[in-house]
Amino acid sequence: MKLSVIASGIALALTLGGCQSTQTTQTSTTAATAQQNNKVFAQDYVLEELDNGLRVMVVKTDYPDVVSLQIPVSVGSRNEVEEGKTGFAHFFEHMMFKGSEKFPEDVYADIMKNSGVDNRAYTTNDYTNYHLNFSKQHLDKVLEIKADVFQNLRYSEEQFRTEALTVKGEYLKNNASPIRKLLAAVRKEAFDKHTYEHTTMGFFEDIEAMPDQSEYGQTFFKRFYKPEYVSLVIVGDVDPKETIAMVKKHWGNWQRGDYQADIPVEPKQAAPRYVHEQYEGLPGHWLLVSYKGTEWNPNTKDRAALDLLSQLYFSENSELYQQLVVEKQIASQMFTYNPETKDPGLLHVFVKVDDEENLAVVRDAINQTYAQARTELVDEGKLAALKSNAKYSFINSLDSSQAIASTLASYMHFERDPEVINALYQSADSVSAEDIRAIANQYFTDNNRTTVTMSAKDAVAGFDAEVQLDTLVADINNKPTEQLFTVLDKTNSSPLVDVNWLFYTGAAADPEGKKGVAALTAAMLAKGGSQSMSYKEIQKALYPIAGSFAYQIDKEMISLRGRIHKDNAEQWYELVSDQLLEPGFREDDFARLKKELIDGIESGLKASNDEELGKEVLYAELYQGHPYGAYNYGDLSDLEALTLDDVKAFYAKNFTQRNLHLGLIGAVPEKVKAQMMSDLQGLPAGEQARLDIPDAPALSGHHATIIEKSAKSTAVSFGFPIETTRSSKDWTALWLVRSFLGEHRNSNAKLYERIRQVRGMNYGDYAYIEYFPRGMFQTKPDANLGRSEQIFQVWLRPLRSNNDAHFATRTALRELDKLISQGMSEVDFNATRNFLTNFLPQLVASQNRQLGYALDSQFYGTDNFADYVRSQLETLTVADVNRVIRENLQTDNIHYVFVSGDGEDMKARLANEQVSPLKYNTEKPAELVAEDKQIESYKLAIPSKNIKVVPLEEVFK
């Protein structure tokens, strides 16, 4: 016996199945042309129908001595139309081994044993097959014995009743299988009238009553064991002509019958159905999702298309299998089973999970996959590869006489003609991606679905809230077809291709209590795997083509950017687009990247980068209670609590078309560009085009935050919010002021000259009007740090002691006060403007920087950055600049941040306005010494109540 094929690796040849008989050829045929290249079954054969309706097929093979005899009888559970009489097709599979008057059971068994005959049988929905394998010298005797049994089966009442008990035992044994229990449950739920409602075993109550049904048993046998229901398939080392003669000798006088079962037609299902099956002691939980399929007809595309679809979307090679079983390991088993049936049957997907809550997860994933099949066009290359694999796998499987015979038997019961195999594959060859989608829409509808869950529990919690498949399809179809994202196309002849996927979202969009989720999501996209490949596999594939893909996050922007040579652009895009559009969201990636972010804060920022730490704490202090208030990479406690679901939710909400501003530069191949435009339209439309950022909190007075940590130097940052951003008309003037006061990593600026050059106090002293992270590692600012709110900031790179830090801060504040009160001189103005005019091209000197700055210009609503700044510099006057200084800079409201090894000492110095005399290791000019005397007691005016000391461990906690 067999339960057809229940496995994920079902060969297509054995899963394409079932329809009404339409042909009754009664002439002898020799397939002289069967070797045509387009035929998957290409063996020469003889097919003859005897006068009594018996079909005989003979295939001569080159495998020596062995013969395989298959006797498919076109009767299965489908034919059991009488109430209370289910299971008889299977029961007679057993009884046919009881012998006849000429060959009683013991004689029958003895002959078969001594002849070395492998003698077995199985029952299906639509047919029962008796298969025997033996040496060719026994062919005549085997045909004689089987003919006599088929025509003159004989058994006693006692044998009948005893075998009925055996069948009951088999039912109970089979009922222990969760797969069989699921199949029995789904068939009983899905069918109302058709005999597919019961399995081949039958209903248990009918099996229990079977011992008393001996008389009906005789009736069943006389109805169906007639030549018009039977085929003989004989394959092996035989002479076809002699074999046909043997068949006629033993089977030719068998009398034809006239019975035909009236198979009820199943009414159209009106609603989706669901049932839960309790199985006490069952480990894990099972889900079975089944849809009504099509009847057997090899000349139409439906059956072939449904099986191709099943392999594309639910086999071990499918994205869903890889996602559920391999990558996320939500499911421990997943497979399809699409039995061939003469009438419309069921198409199944089985999944086993360990956790009850994952039943709804995998159900929704299956629904989403069917919705995908109904809305997308499968890749033609993948479809062609599947067809080719199926065809050649079928051909390769015909590697013995037994394999050929058993395959033929599985098709002969339909139309009793082996050419249905070739017709079936010809239909499969003609199936297109459009056919797959159209047929998916025809069969995979909510009203066609029956779902079964099974576990040790009496119900599945939370399983009732099922999303309807038609709703999912509607949602997909309602996705905008127009392009809702913007594209900055700066393609040119450069062989280097840079792509920047700039999303208007970022750390400012982190929900309360989930600070860091934006950064973790961006990391998961750029440094995690896709649904089809692990991150390790992606990196391995990118290595030989030197492809890159990275991310940068700020408050209102997440930039995912990459570079590749144009020759490898297609391969590179296929890899990184999957990361962006089909992220794997694997637990191992999530754990790894979350740990990296936490380590980056703990070890990279807090423990070993005092300079950046002070700058970031200043932002956090100035923006308390504001969307900018948290560090870009999160708060440690929030990061620890983040889940993969948090990341998925952020991705779904924020990585949308309306948030996307795509930048392209270099010789982007047209094919890649077109694919990119199409793919990105698969992102959700989204509702927001830009984050709504409120004004910065009002700062009143002077404040100081001192971070106490083990440090041998003291880092200083101070600043205050400003309203001028790059969108403002005065931005270029303020940018010039900033450069004069403290151009980053430049020795010509005022603060650098007064603190480092003449006094040798530290490494550098700079000023900013835009966020400038990673300043200790680079000389020029990054692009794509666009913000709606900015601060004016002074950064004094670490000083040797608290005293020096106090003095340097006083120096910087004094210079700022002088600038505000006295303004900039004409000489300083011209020198700074000349510097910036000539320095400006360096900011956009590389291709990727050109692209990044151009995208920023879109964010700020300005012209091209270099042109915009250059034109404004040309028209600026020193009067303009001094006005901008007065309107934007002040020293009444400032927040200071110190990172110090002795926080209490630093607090005392500030609160008491302690003098901070400066000592040199060499003589200094009297003018400088005199200036030092003024600076060492220059008042910062920070009230004691506005000074706090924060232990390092509490920062970004």
Automatic annotation (TrEMBL):
The UniProt record lists the Peptidase M16 N-terminal domain at 56-201, 490-629
Family annotation (Pfam families): Peptidase_M16 (PF00675), Peptidase_M16_C (PF05193)
Q: Which superkingdom?
A: Bacteria
Residues in Peptidase M16 C-terminal domain copies:
219-388, 642-834
Q: Which InterPro entries match?
A: Metalloenz_LuxS/M16, MPP/UQCRC_Complex, Pept_M16_N, Peptidase_M16_C
**PANTHER family (UniProt xref):** METALLOPROTEASE, MITOCHONDRIAL-PROCESSING PEPTIDASE SUBUNIT ALPHA
Family affiliation: Belongs to the peptidase M16 family.
Protein name as it appears in the record: Pitrilysin family protein
Source species of the chain: Pseudoalteromonas qingdaonensis
